[in-house]
Amino acid sequence: MDHLEGAKKTGDVRLGFDRRVRLEFHCSKISSDGGLPLFRELDEVLGLHEIAGGFLRDTRTGHNRLHSLAGLLRQSVFGRLAGYDDVNDADRLSLDPVMRQVVGGRAVDAKAASPSQMGRFETEVLAKTDNRAALSDLSGQWIDRFHGRRPPKWITLDMDSSVSPTHGDQEGTTWNGHFGCMCYHPLFVFNQFRHLERCALCPGNVHSADGWEAVLKSVIARYADRHLIQFFREDAAFAIPELHKTLEAESYFYSIRLRANRVLQGKIAHLLKRPVGRPPKGVKRIYGDVQYQAASWDKPSRVIAKVEWHPSELFLRVGFVVTNLPMEPDWIIRFYNQRGTAEQHIKEGKQAINWTRLSCKGMAQNEVRRQIHALAYNLGVFLQGAKLPEAVADCSLTSLQTRLIKTGARVVRHARAITFQLAEVAVSGDLFTRILAAIHRLRSPPVPG
After folding, report:
1. What mean pLDDT do residues 339-350 have?
2. What is the DSSP-derived secondary structure letter of residue 9?
């Protein structure tokens, strides 16, 4: 009698609870990522990796060119999008039929890049100075291509920093007392469509706004020649006179939180007195509108104050926002409060793409990994902006991974066709087809003859 969990010479496995059940393993014929071709189609419709091929420089020499540069980048980006955040995962992904089809070229009939090939690509080819600069610009180029198909009427930029914990002796990693760990301190700029406009990897002990010029000014330059209403909002860490001057020079409307001080509180002292009578049953909000000039500012600016009385709290809550918006104070505060969505985008990137996984020794190599994670994140968000069917229109990136990408697929190869037989467990064939139609609506209109 065969062992209950053993395998026979034919490669199948029998289970003890039902001897009729037989398990077979076909790594090159079955995939758990059957939804990736949808994102590959989105890539093709928008021509995203076509842009990448024109920006990146191939530094490989000799005969070490089995796969194209665009194919290797696809394997890096699509692998992260599917949840494979380590180069070692290429050992299995190189045989996966979906990944081979996504990479294209010789990978379709042979296999995709091995872990050693992916390691050299990410830590040597992409880590070159010019390629790292091109990677930093690539997210913006992809967003421009997407906006070319769905032009926005205005742009709102949110800048924020976050934490990427590190484990080991990595270049640039230091102790950060605020986060209480050894880490990097990356900087992000998002727009209102959840696209990651640009990001940069910073050492762990720098200020939250450190390096804002290199990150923000390049994004501002991309939108400089477009007829768009432009907004910017940020937390108190970015209340820097030079940043205010830059925004005003580029005709940006901004709302940036200010830390409270005695001068500001003195200007709204009449609002800080407890109301006479019984405490209100709900939250009571009062707004103030004052002119204020800090010692480092060259002119006074408009500051909106928000005072909140909560029934269950002894002390009031006071917040200040410096702005050049001409709207009413309550509108400005509501607009500023939407800045918190940037924190949710960062959280989604951590959960879905795992972009805190920066395990290389050198900081240049970790910067490459950060930019690849950014491209994977944007590719996923682009699909969310393609006017998807109602059943998946409000899905987060994590939900799209589990419901759409993680669809079982069996590949059947014939002389003239390659068929992927997909499971209809989480996503039906009809829904899959409608998602594909939404992607095709992003195609650029035909050029008149």
Report:
1. 92
2. T
